[in-house]
Amino acid sequence: xxxxxxxxxxxxxxxxxxxxxxxxxxxxxxxxxxxxxxxxxxxxxxxxxxxxxxxxxxxxxxxxxxxxxxxxxxxxxxxxxxxxxxxxxxxxxxxxxxxxxxxxxxxxxxxxxxxxxxxxxxxxxxxxxxxxxxxxxxxxxxxxxxxxxxxxxxxxxxxxxxxxxxxxxxxxxxxxxxxxxxxxxxxxxxxxxxxxxxxxxxxxxxxxxxxxxxxxxxxxxxxxxxxxxxxxxxxxxxxxxxxxxxxxxxxxxxxxxxxxxxxxxxxxxxxxxxxxxxxxxxxxxxxxxxxxxxxxxxxxxxxxxxxxxxxxxxxxxxxx
Length: 320
What we know:
- It is built from 12 helices and 2 strands, in the order ααββαααααααααα.
- The protein has 320 residues and is mainly α.
- A two-stranded antiparallel sheet has the order 1-2.
- Helix 6 packs antiparallel against helix 9 and helix 11 (264-271) runs antiparallel to helix 12.
- The protein is flat, with a radius of gyration of 25 Å.
C-alpha cells in the first residue's frame, strides 16, 4: 500500500514537472515572437511622421537632402539590391561547388577539416572584413582589376568610370565572401539529406559521377539549395559594417559598378546619430522598417524551402 502511494506521488510529481517544463518552453518560444512584433510596432510608430508626409513616394524619390527636408530612399534601395545581387552572383557558384566537393568528393578523413575551415569564415567579425577590404581589396581593385575590366568590358557600361577601388564592386565582393559560409553549410546539409539510394540508382544506370551528382543529388536538393541562397540573400541585405566601410556612401544611382553607392543599413548606421529633427529621424526609422520586413519575408521563404527538402531526415544524417 505504501509503495502504491509512493508510486502515485512520484507519478504526480513527474506530470507537474513535465507540464512546468512544457509551459516554460512555450513561454520562451512566444517571447521570441513577441519581441519581433514589438520591434515591428515600435518601428511603425516611430516612422509614422515620414509615412504620413511622403507616403509611397518615399521609396521612389531619388533626392536625399536632410537640410531641405527632402527624403527619397530609392538610392538606398538600389544600392542594397545591386550589392546583394552581385554578392549572390559571385558567391552561389563557389558555395555550391564547395558543398558538392565536401559531401560528394572529399575524402571522409578530411571532410570535417574542410567543413570547419569554411564555417570559420562566418565567425570572423564584419569589421575585420571591412578593414581587409580597405587595405587589401580596394588597392587591388583600383590598380589591377578595375583597369582590366574597363578595357575588356567597359562597353557594357557596368565597368567604366574612375577606378576608386571602393564602390559597389568592392561591396559586392566583400558580401560574397561573407555569405559563402552560410550558403555552403546549408547546401551541404541539404545534399547530405538526399537519400543514398538516389545516388546508387543513378550509378547503377551507368551515370558518371558528375551525372550522378547533377541528376541524383542536385536535382533532388534544388529546393533546399534555393532556400540556402535566399538565406544568403537575407544576410547580404542586412550587412552593415563591412559594406559601409567600402561602398563609398554616396546616395546616387549609377549604372557602373565602379561608382560609389549607399545601402539601407549603411545610411541608418551613418546618419542615425546625426538626425536633428523628428522627420529626419522618422525617415531613417522607416528605412529600417522596410529593411526588417524584407528580411523577415526573405528568411521565412528560405526556411520554408529548406524545410521542404530536409523534413523527415533523421537527425543522425546531419552529423555525417
